[in-house]
Amino acid sequence: MSSNKFINLLVPIISLLLGLIAGAIIMVGFGYNAVEGFKALWNGAFGDIYFIGETVRQITPYIFSGLAVAFAFRTGLFNIGVEGQVIVGWLAAVWVGVAFDLPMIVHLPLAIAAAAIAGAIWGFIPGLLKAKLRVHEVIVTIMLNYTALYIANHLVRNVITDKGDRTESISSSASLKSQWLMEFTQYSTMHMGIILALIAAVFMWFYLEKTTKGFELRAVGFNQHASKYAGMNVEKNIILAMVISGAFGGLAGAMEGLGTFGYMSVQSGFTNIGFDGIAVALLGGNTALGVVLAAGLFGSLKVGALNMPVAGVPTELVDIIVALIIFFVASGYIIRWFLSRMKRRENK
Amino acid sequence: MEYVIEMLNIRKEFPGIVANDNITLQVKEGEIHALLGENGAGKSTLMNVLFGLYQPEKGEIRVRGKKVKITDPNVANDLGIGMVHQHFMLVDTLTVTENIILGSEPKKYRLSIDMKKAEEDVRKISEQYGLKVDPAAKISDISVGMQQRVEILKTLYRGADILIFDEPTAVLTPQEIQELIEIMHNLVREGKSIILITHKLKEIMEVADRCTVIRRGRGIKTLNIAETNPNELASLMVGREVSFKTEKEPAKPQDTILSIKDLVVKDARKVDMVRGLNLDVKAGEIVGIAGVDGNGQTELIEAIAGLRPVESGTILLNGKDITDLPPRKVTEAGVGHIPQDRQKFGLVLDYPIGENMVLQTYYKQPFSKRGVLNFKNIYDKAKSLIKEYDVRTPSEFTRARSLSGGNQQKAIIGREVDRSPDLLIAAQPTRGLDVGAIEFIHTKLIEERDKGRAVLLLSFELDEIMNVSDRIAVMYEGQIVAIVKPEDTTEEELGLLMAGSKKQKVGES
Amino acid sequence: ACGTGDDEGQDTEGTDDTDQNEAVDFTVAMVTDVGGVDDKSFNQSAWEGLSDFGKENGLEEMKDYTYAQSETDQDYKTNLNRLVRQGYDLIYGIGYLLQPAVDEVAQQNPDTNFAIVDSVAEQPNVASITFKEHQGSFLVGVAAAMKTKTNKVGFIGGTDSDLINKFEVGFRAGVKSVNPDAEVVVQYAGGFNMADKGKVIASSMYNQGVDVIYHASGATGNGAFTEAKDRKKNNPDEDIWVIGVDRDQYEEGAVTVDGQEYNVTLTSMVKRVDVAVKDLSTRALEGDFPGGEILEYGLEDNGISVATTNEEALTEDILHEISKWEEQIVNGDIEVPKNHDELEEYLNSL
Amino acid sequence: MNLLEMLQTMIPPALFFAAPLIFTALGGVLSERSGVINIGLEGLMIMGAFVGVVFNLAFVDVFGDIWTPWVSILVAAFVSALFALLHAVASITFRADQVVSGVAINFLALGIGLFLVKQWYGKGQTDMVDAPFYTADIPVLSSIPVIGPIFFSNTYYTTWLAIVLAIVIYLIIFKTPFGLRLRSVGEHPMAADTLGINVVKMRYIAVMLSGFMGGLGGSIYALTIAMDFSHSTISGQGFMALAAMIFGKWHPLGAMGAALFFGFAQSLSVISATIPFLQDVPQVYLLIAPYVLTILALAGFIGRADAPKALGSPYIKGSR
Ligand SMILES: Nc1ncnc2c1ncn2[C@@H]1O[C@H](COP(=O)(O)OP(=O)(O)OP(=O)(O)O)[C@@H](O)[C@H]1O
Ligand SMILES: Nc1ncnc2c1ncn2[C@@H]1O[C@H](COP(=O)(O)OP(=O)(O)OP(=O)(O)O)[C@@H](O)[C@H]1O
Ligand SMILES: [Mg+2]
Ligand SMILES: [Mg+2]
């Protein structure tokens, strides 16, 4: 048992190392200094308190979008629509943030709730169609991504503002920014959202693993027939799963709207937070803790990558390294296989 | 060259278990050789070794006297070995013909499949061996019995002359079993040799020439059928005496628990399957439903359990209307249900067996409180059920998937019986089980009856129906056409009633 | 990053202390928007301006003058801050998308000078560079109006935003000023990277009889060029045109039919970000940093121009007409509208 | 505009819009019919677009204006097929989660494409190709009255290649031994295995074919529409192709129909903007129309579709 746990821990670490080694080989192959490259990557992500702040800021929405994808996955649904849910959540949060003037104790929760609700609605649609009409959620969520993008742009321009490119900044009473945190991290964009993200992860873990609702959701994900037989309402659970997943997506948007940016501009394309959430969720094995760790890895690499040109290495290389790490983590089976072979040889 | 197949001292290990431990099996040319053993004794494993799906750790295989190494099913096919697997290896979405020719398709213009020729070929062998099938039908649209014929045709199409049947009769109705036995005789007449795995001693006695008994992975004995009897076989296999006729006191029926009036239920294709059915089941009795598969039994049971909408009519439980209530409400009203398809309905295979034990009760105290699960109580409960019902599993945390079908079945029965429902519906509760397990389950059902519960038993085994029921309701074309007492009838009479030939009304007893 | 053949810095190693006679003690950097430093558009143009400035002043590339590339909107602040922390004297944010980031970072770092291109940030240590795209668009509108035979011209926008509206409005004003009967068909694609949609829109416009399309839509416009070239290829006699944006898109318009070379790029509305960047950097170097000011580059200071590469298409007449209007604009005789309200006013005044 | 003119303006754009999606969706059909989820279609298209453009730029002098685009898409298809091998190795041999592996393919393609463009061209995107595909009137067919001008005039040969390939792949999947085996492997790999079909080999072939088709889709997008390669050349088309595949119920002709539907919806929304009584409708309605129409079509009358049963699960001998 304990050696099993050890291997479970070892596999992702080896995958990570293999990915980095592959990256190093590519760097050397193209005549870059791999040591300098990795040093720049490290410094860009953790070099000092400022960069750590930035990295945390980047991790925050990834946790939410990763949870969104993972939550749906655990109930047997593939939510490619987190991107759209991020956008509507962002919009709703900012809208509430600029439209009202309320004490923080009311305003901030209201704005956050608005984002969650908007995302939830965006998840409700594919959930409903799946439950009632058995329409495949993958298509509906892809279509809703585009729909969200265009509607949000329209609303920013024509409803929230009068032909403006971006909304006003939200009132400080709705902001996740904290003066203290900013000063502490030497004016990084880190905000209080990370706390919400960690709470959300704990919530997901608790809800799925420890509650009767979670028991139902997972059962429906594994076997709808048996769930129905056991008296669970399959349709309701499918909708609920998509609604909660969507709410997580919406909250990822709130992190951008109320934390990182404080406004919403007309988007010329997708934010990619939702799409990256797919990778984060799967890297994290669709568990809450896994998502937090994977978001950490993903966020660090993304922020660190911005610093790589300092060592003359193009940022694009980081995309390659990220991809390779994902490959290696996904292929954990083969690493396990090697490990168990090595162990057996040792035993003999 | 007496033996077509010789498996000598075969050993096959799985992580943590020796499935085959030095087993020897010798099959003579042209015989039907039965392989007998408890659930999990290692029969399927041995056959999978012969068919090339598993590689043995030790041992030697000879085919027609020649030593061979069967590295994969292709090699087995080339050696003329064909296998009808315990769980059918059929592609649901393909047609009968497509399934049969898959892998060795007749070609037209060197590129495309010559479907005409294929269907012709299929028709030819199907006629030659008396295996009637509709070559153009989709697998998902045909009956289990028909599917099995397709499996047999697959092996014959490839020219197999050594056929392995792994529990072919577990899923068949008595009629289909008779047909299969006929088919096996045909095959042997055509010069084929057959290895037959079955838990039904009667069948072994009827068709087999010799029988090899294995227990817990070890070969026990090979006997000539002519020189043995079911009792000997059973005790060799289980290691103790087994009684075939379950002892029971006469029933003491009390109030009516289940009362069905003019029930009409449609199947998925919107065809009426239950057509104005009436039935009462009383507390303290076991009512067996006898009938040929496809006469609306499944629909009836699913309708009672709330899994299928009711078109018209009423279902009363303890006088309370439960017609069209959702499954949860039906369960709470006091119905327990051992479903026919245990893997599809009975279990969440990816959940630990322990959590499967509370599949309908997880939301109640003491398994949860205010929506939060109490795993200690859940697993405590599971542990005691596993013990009581002799579910063989490494632990209560093992995923249900890796239990054998028999043990999965015992787990479900334990779960349903333990809830002590007023009405227990048991649909084919012993399908695929060995005689020891069957004995155990029958005893449990009778115990429930004696506690004053009503039991509705659905089975295609007339043996079981005759053995366990207090009253037998014969179902034909969506209606109960007769109600008889087992002591007043014979299997022959039942068979006639089930075929709908003698439509007589037998008064309620 | 990779080996720009600039050997100047190589002869001396420790360039921290200036052994070079002409080198000055000034460092400058820019942050691109998501287009990247080599977008063949305004990011690239800005970098060219900065490089020019650096070379002229003996600065070392990627050290004394450098850029940081943004992959997503979230990277702007991170990049700006990183450059601040590396101690650059002047930091540019290229593109209106960076406005909020520059605004905030500037506020937090009052000792560093910033500049924002294409937008305005009202901070004492920020110089805002904007362009009078409407002026340039007006002039290409004039060209379009002169060139059209069908009296129908088209405009394809990326997203419907203030900035792109400026292009649309200027263009429409230009067209109507010369040819009040001409119809302007306007469509927004909804994004800057939708070449397929751009092509569908262009195809629809040409089918309606539009013969000149002005696009302000980044890579979406590629689709318009593709469509125009395809039509040209099939029917070299058909007179259809595209007007490029941001830089001279003459190259994009080249098409060879039966050995004969054609070019569908009538002209381009060129935005000289390089000129502005170089200009501002020089002022900063000279200690004349215009903090808090808005520098509006237009026709008068070569910040905006109209490409005349396609000599065959831009006839004397057209060139003449363009320069006539240009003069009036530069003189201030004409105030080119910048938004829809002003356009209405302007059209009514015609 | 009368109806005929309307169709004449609406159909050709619908066709060229749909073509790359058809190729890629067909690739998806092949892969998923064998039981391997391919969410990496986007990445395969990116690889195809990248190779198609780079090859075109580099070899235009060798192959000339006519042949260069054809050779380019072929090379792009082969390179993408090789690239898809990564997905195959990870998800079939290494038993990686097929969705994860597909996601990695998407990241990797973009990373490699941009990195190499930067290495080779020293900038963020390539130049525009000089030898793209051009539309033409298809001989004979274009002179058929009514249909000719709508479907066969001013059309890309590649569009018709897409449609022909859809039919060919339909025939392969449903009429040949290879197709029968492919479907059996995707539905019940163990059954196929017991009949001596090499499940792993079939899946490798299918995934590589999906790479081939995705490569065609991406390169044809680049050489009929985008003309260059940059980070935004392929942005979402792969996911639309994925949607088309599901929309089309994993059927080659269905996938083609769905892709044509998308193309038609896009074309319709663009044309609508020019219809007088629709001109005052806010743009946003027209922008979202194609996507909303798709959802409505699905909800209204397409309904459920069943994926191949073994989709997503690695085949492990001797387990069930
Ligand atoms: N794939 C496997 N992996 C691990 N263990 C296995 C596997 N297959 C079989 N076993 C083990 O081998 C033993 C024998 O299994 P086998 O399937 O041969 O039983 P059987 O005699 O066919 O039983 P049944 O009557 O239930 O079909 C089982 O107890 C099981 O624990
Ligand atoms: N993947 C697996 N891992 C571990 N054990 C397995 C696995 N697959 C099968 N087994 C074991 O194989 C044994 C028998 O498997 P088999 O498929 O014959 O069961 P079954 O036919 O469904 O059961 P039964 O015959 O009792 O109804 C079981 O004891 C089960 O534990
Ligand atoms: Mg069994
Ligand atoms: Mg077995």
From TrEMBL, chain A:
Q: What membrane topology is given?
A: Multi-pass membrane protein
Protein name per UniProt: Nucleoside ABC transporter membrane protein
Q: Does the keyword Transmembrane apply?
A: yes
List, alphabetically, the GO terms of the cellular component aspect.
plasma membrane
Q: Which InterPro entries match?
A: ABC_transp_permease
Record organism = Melghiribacillus thermohalophilus
The UniProt transmembrane annotation reads: 7-35, 55-73, 80-98, 104-125, 187-208, 238-266, 278-300, 320-339
The UniProt GO MF terms for this protein read: transmembrane transporter activity
Question: Which CDD domains has this protein been placed in?
Answer: TM_PBP1_transp_TpRbsC_like
Where is it localised? Cell membrane
TrEMBL record, chain B:
List where in the cell it is found.
Answer: Cell membrane
Q: Name one GO molecular function term.
A: ATP hydrolysis activity
Predominantly, its location class is membrane
Q: Name one GO cellular component term.
A: plasma membrane
The answer to keyword Membrane applying to this record is: yes
Please give, as recorded in its UniProt entry, the membrane topology of this protein.
Peripheral membrane protein
Question: Which family would the database say this protein is a member of?
Answer: Belongs to the ABC transporter superfamily.
What is the name of this protein?
Nucleoside ABC transporter ATP-binding protein
Protein species of origin? Melghiribacillus thermohalophilus
From TrEMBL, chain D:
Instruction: Pull one GO CC term from this UniProt entry.
Output: plasma membrane
Keywords linked to the UniProt accession: Cell membrane, Membrane, Transmembrane, Transmembrane helix
How does this protein lie in the membrane? Multi-pass membrane protein
- Name where it's found: Cell membrane
- Show the GO MF annotations: transmembrane transporter activity
Pfam families, alphabetized: BPD_transp_2
Q: Which residues form the signal peptide?
A: none
- Bilayer-crossing residues are 41-63, 70-94, 100-121, 133-151, 157-174, 204-223, 284-303
Protein name, please?
Nucleoside ABC transporter membrane protein
Give the organism the record lists: Melghiribacillus thermohalophilus
